[in-house]
Amino acid sequence: MRRIAVVGGSLAGVHAAEALREHGFDGDVTLISAENELPYDRPPLSKEALLNGMPMERLSLRAPEWYEDNAVTTRLGNAAVRLDTARRTVLLDDGTTVAYDGLVIATGSRARRLSSTENAPPVQILRSIEDSLRLRERLRPGQHLVLIGAGFIGLEIAATARQLGLDVTIVEVGRVPLGRALGDEVGAWFRALHARNGVEIVCTCTVEAIERLGEGAVLTLSNGRVFNADVVVAGIGASPVTEWLDGSGVQTTDGVVCRSDLSTSVPGVAAAGDVARWYNPLFDEEIRVEHWTNAVEQGRRAAHTLLGHGEAFSAVPYFWTDQYDARMRFVGRASAASEVVVKESGDDRLVALYGRDDRIRGAVCVNAPRELVRYRTAIRDQVRWGDVTETPSAIGG
Amino acid sequence: MGMKLVLDLDACQGYANCLIESPGLFDLDDRTDKAVLLDETPAEDRRAEAEAAVRGCPARAISLESS
């Protein structure tokens, strides 16, 4: 193997390139990115970068010299549009091709957009640095921000906007925020957190119409309420970027279908990060994980697999979100849980556990990092549900 | 040659990822909400854990040097 192409200037892509070099691969490494910037970190885009602005040097995952020092060739501003696995080439949107012997698919996901009507004002999304900068310009004190969707991105933007002095309303189709991800109990806790900070979350409700009014909009909700918004942002989830793989023979079903070692249906092709769907033996299910740490570790694992050192990827997913003074960390899986137990709940603290098949599968900890460590170990060791729910959670200190 | 963990407290944002990746090497200070390095020169058999902590820090506040 002489040439490895990494498609996606993403967290997973950078870590794949880094792991290739760490493993002694001395052939060509080409990193292809649809974005114009060197790969950067996304979590701050809805938080610190939106609140205070952040220079590109701090957002960049690696300094420009790193790419030179590691002989990683970058093709920035060039989206991959087609993959030819017979000829082993990637076609880019400028008409050029990149030939490879090994390929890492790390194209990530893109924010879903509302299906918009013709005279609807632009509803913003937040995924890229451009999105963040554009939104930052619009977040002025005293204005009314309406967020569509009370998922993690929406809630983080809400918290940032409150700190910037805006009035914030969130419209959510579910019964509570984060309900689909974390269940009603934890969702209700987050709704109360935002209510204490002056954010109204209108639940079980959709936006029926959005009409332009000056720079802003008039929104009509399904419950009959009508109100004005200066800024409208949709945070309604993300979809894996896989269209460029159509016809390539790489199997996709809501993401790239991977084996447990992140290899795909085509030899010499592996996938990592948001785009990869793989079988996680720890949870006995096929999952796709859109988390930061997962992208780091899968990028590395995909590189190892290409170099012939594949092994099953069985990490415990880990995720965080910071809103106001609440630092929430989540480990494991909640979506398929049949049991939820709230161990501790107060204004500034929350510990909730998720179980299925008599095993602990997930844990939410707000401002409780040591509990998180303990439950992460319990999930990895597949501790019995009764053993974690019946013991007191208080840990000294 | 051993390894030496270095924690940059100015860069630390209190994410607690290090504590999650390698609980024996890091803790969190409840007052400052910043990481605490418990073992600056961990034994060689903890290299994987130490490297995971370095990679897992979104603030890039941890580095690993040879000692």
TrEMBL record, chain A:
Keywords of the record: FAD, Flavoprotein, Oxidoreductase
FAD/NAD(P)-binding domain sequence ranges: 3-299
Gene3D superfamilies: 3.30.390.30, FAD/NAD(P)-binding domain
GO molecular function: oxidoreductase activity, acting on NAD(P)H
Cofactor(s) needed by this chain: FAD
Transmembrane residue ranges: none
Oxidoreductase as UniProt keyword: yes
Cellular component, GO, one term: cytoplasm
Keyword Oxidoreductase: yes
Segments forming domain Reductase C-terminal: 318-384
PANTHER family: APOPTOSIS-INDUCING FACTOR 1, RIESKE DOMAIN-CONTAINING PROTEIN-RELATED
Name of this protein: Pyridine nucleotide-disulfide oxidoreductase
Organism expressing this protein natively: Streptomonospora alba
Lineage: Bacteria, Bacillati, Actinomycetota, Actinomycetes, Streptosporangiales
